[in-house]
Amino acid sequence: MERPFASAGSVTLMGSGELTESMTRVHQWAVSRIEGPVNAVFLDTPAGFELNADSISEKARSYVRRYVGVACALATFKSKDKATDAELRNAVRKIERANYMFAGPGSPTYAIRQWEGTPIIDAVSHRVAEGANLVLASAAAIAVGHYSLPVYEVYKVGAEPHWVEGLNLLAPHGLDLTIVPHWNNSEGGTYDTRFCFMGKPRFDALEALLPEWTVIVGIDEYTACILVLGEDVCRVMGAGQVTVRRPGGKDTVYPADSSFSLDELRSEAMSLSAPVLQSPVKETAAQASEELGHKVGETERTLAAPRDGQSESELAGQAFELVQAIERAEASGAGGETIAQARAELRSLVDLWGKELGTSGGDFVANLTPFVELLIDLRARLRDSRQWELADEVRKRLAALDVTLEDTPDGTTWKRH
Known about the structure:
Strand content: 15-25%
Helix content: 40-55%
CATH class of the largest domain: Alpha Beta
Largest sheet: 8 strands, mixed
Strand order of the largest sheet: 3-2-4-5-1-10-11-14
Number of strands: 16
Distance between the termini: 60 Å
């Protein structure tokens, strides 16, 4: 089969232990693939229903800071029904900037319900296709397969063995998988808890419910199955092994530190039915310049419009999008004149935003955490592109509203006096 998405990144599937020191090597391997600054982000959705969801997120981010050695932002999207438009946009922006994405503990069925049909999962998929590295453990790993195991519902609540439709995140890469972590679990002691706590009798019943062409990937605990999509190879790292169960109940076992072709994970049915996949085409200078021209036009119309249309958060969001368009134009080699004009319009837009913010009274800021986080991201991008004066302007405008930014080795934090 022709290799899809030759420029794609990697997807690491962990059987368990994602926040243990023994799995540090796996995280560090994903980060080692990144050229230039590492933009890491943790996705909190799988555990969004937990009362201690914030503590879980902070533990994960602290782990990345301590053991991987990079700052890790939080892309928070705990609930599809409760998230505001600003929270959704803020999470998507962080994912679009990330080259290392991490998600793990929680419930696979909850993660599927919250991510399905949202820009969140689309953004994750696009970033992987563009070369980013995605690390998924336990619940999150289950959720991205074609068929997903409702672990809690079967194991804890006593529901009849069944599968739910997963997110099928890997289908664009010719992989139609059902992912089962905790493959060798032994917590049951005197009773069988292999196969993600199902035990053999229940798992046999579950297998009988799957289409005959299904490929199951069983991942031992403290083990990672790393799909290096651009190279069309799979690597196994950690303490255990990866079991590939193909149609007909045929198992192939791959031990730690081994590797094999991703073709071993592709079923014949998938090969015959999968559409012809095209590699993403890098934006040309002409396309990037045209896109930037549109953004400049939008900015000009905003600057000329009466000041009763857009909110402060909308102006900040427009500035963020203009910065993104400038970055893409620079990366494509677009002409300097277009970029110079865009930078001038960006300065005017930031000035307008600051004036509007100054007349708002600032009371809204206390209730708009996503808005402040958007401005932190905007400031970070301005600093990355060496637009120091505009970055300082963002800090000063927030300081006038008693919002203090503090730059630390772990990233930028904020507080309001």
